[in-house]
Amino acid sequence: MAQIHQLGDGSTVFAGQRDDGFFADVGAVFDLVAIRNGTGATGGGKDFLAGYAVHTIALQVPLSQLDNGSNHVVGIWSATDRPKVTVEARKRVRQMKWAQVSRLGNPLINELLIPTQLKDKWNASTPDKDKQFEQYYSNSILAQLLNKLYPQFGPFKETDRQDLVAVLGTGLKSPNLNFTGPTFADEIRLNLSIAPTAPVGQGNRLGVLGGDLAGYPNGRRLEDDVVDISERVVGGALIGHSLPLGDGVDANDVPYMTSFPYEADPFSGFDNTKGQLFPTHP
Amino acid sequence: MNRRRRAGLAGRPSRLGRETYVKRSRILFPIAVAAVAVAALLGGAFAASGSKSAAPPRVNAERLAVDYFSPNTARYVVELQDALRTQTDNVRGLGLLGLAYQQRARETGDPTYYTKSKGVLERALQIAPNDLIATGGLGSLALSQHRFREALALGLRARRLSPTTARTYGVIGDALVELGRYRDAFASFDTMTRLRPSLAAYARVSYARELLGNFRGAVSAMRLAQTAAIGEPEALAWTAVQLGKLYWAHGQVDRAALQFRYALAAFPGYVYAYDAFAQVEAARGHVRTAIALEQRAVDGIPLPQFVALLGDLEAKAGDRPAARREYETIGVIERLLVANGVKTDLETALFDVDHGIRLRHALAIARKAHADRPSIDGDDVLAWAFVRNGRCGDALQWSRHSLRLGTQDALKFFHRGVIERCLGNRTAARAWFRRALSLNPHFSVLWAPVARGWSA
Known about the structure:
The complex is a heterodimer. By secondary structure, chain A is of the alpha+beta class. Chain A is 17% helix and 14% strand. Chain A has helices at 26-30, 109-112, 119-124, 134-138, 141-149, 162-170, 226-235, and strands at 4-6, 12-19, 53-60, 73-76, 78-83, 98-104, 188-191. In chain A, the strands form three sheets. Chain A has a three-stranded antiparallel beta sheet, with no helix packed on it. A two-stranded antiparallel sheet of chain A has the order 4-7. Chain A has a two-stranded antiparallel sheet with strand order 5-6. The two termini of chain A are 41 Å apart. The mean pLDDT of chain A is 88. Chain B has helices at residues 3-8, 30-48, 61-65, 73-86, 91-108, 112-127, 132-144, 148-161, 166-178, 182-195, 199-211, 215-228, 233-249, 253-266, 271-283, 287-300, 304-316, 320-339, 345-354, 359-372, 376-388, 392-402, 410-422, 426-439, 448-455. Chain B starts with a helix and ends with a helix. In chain B, helix 5 packs parallel to helix 7. Mean pLDDT of chain B is 84; it is low at 1-70.
């Protein structure tokens, strides 16, 4: 592919349009956290993202550049910045300054955990200062919501959720997975010493909850069903309250590719699934 | 008419009204994230009142919260209303419905939605006095109703509730602009931009720079707003129209037309683009085409500024009865606006002075408007009302005040020319007329031809 570039140090980068590799019953998630049938684990969901494409920046980096041989766990987060401007230019601007407007480590933190009045602040801040947001992990509004909506599956623990603090903020010590020390920070933690357990796209979709230590929340693979995993973890999967919660969508609508950048080709305009078919006429 | 005041009549905002409550995250899966955010927003609220039977809205409420035009807002309103029938104390639901009503007002031009919005937002605050969405929502409502002192007070309250939420500084800054407190307003826009540069923040910086006479800076900030709108058709169309109007105000007709065309391509049927394009066609001498385009804008949303331009174009084409009909319609629309809490004094005064209607009375309205809204636009309309009543000295004082920021505005230059003429300063008058025309030869359907006649 023309958009793939070798950077000369063993790294490879891609930028361009791909099939949206994420899958979720967004419509149902919208309908009060997505539980259609029973606890939601028996399929029947509707993949809202099927047939859509996304702009993708993919980076493939040699392990040797990340692993120093003693500490195998890396923390990863991304951010989006926009140019900073002021009404009156204070002095001649030599170089554009940027302001962070969004960040992402673990999925859905901004959407599900951070309260409205702190969203701008959270998005402008960096994970090393996340201690200030820890209370919103330990006292989960999502667990409160589950108790209101699904008392028949409860009770869900609402306060002092040290399990959520650990899995999202410090990494897991038991199982000994990806603990990075006591500093609370929202990052995707990946233990590089745990080898992939399956070819790309074929790991256990429930990752660590499904006994596959090479999946989310140890890193995040394309096939990891983060909506189901998140619902179950908030439901208490790590503290002895296991419930097969889910959105009924278990995999992407098209297979991932077996080589970089792994996300499938975007749908062609000719074959798009979103339009309405017009009847033929002579 | 000045484009800003023109944009002001029914809800100001087309220019400054884009606001964000719900965070937009686009890094990995933009659509999913947005919708999940909404689930959290609505779900949390509905759950709080302990029912799961509510029919939850299916439209992307984020689009709503950021003031976008959405073809589904009507349905969204119905769904929120259904949900609230069983969950009367759902604060978030009430807040979102309040914003949805404001969006409906923008989409339809029907100001009764303002009254509805006020009702549900006040109910939300009765239940939860410190709710940020309801407080900010009442602030943006007050802006739409041109109640700028109330808007400022509400903005300051929202700031106490959350000093790090960027959009609040937009409400505060917009109110301060209209109250003539420019230094504070611009500081508020800078804070907004520092907290979170966004389409809304860039657009405000662009406006502030334009007020300061910094055309290039205004264009570059609006270009940033345009980049921030990529992927969202109505937002993109909105920024294109704003950018086009900037070019238009500086006489760059072709560049302006390109942006208006771009807006219509991005978001077909966009009434603000039809309105803008009508002015281009009029400038090119195609009055019939201009009338047809403006009629489309009026058919889409009967905003008083659209109806006024339609009347002016019809008058220009020699169709006085049609023009009279449009002008009468404006009176009806304004009564409807007033009945729903909108203050229209400044717009009414300008229209009446422009059209020579009850000039002494118009001056009284202009004074009242200026007391409520001592901005440079308030200064300018007061000056214009004075000179049309033959009070040239008073007019001069307010004209000077209206130009104190260095704003490059052909209509204000023209008004100054008329004032100098009234004072017997023929040379100065001609210089102002030439200045207006060289900035924008088509600055007003009504007055550009007059300026041309008097500049010779």
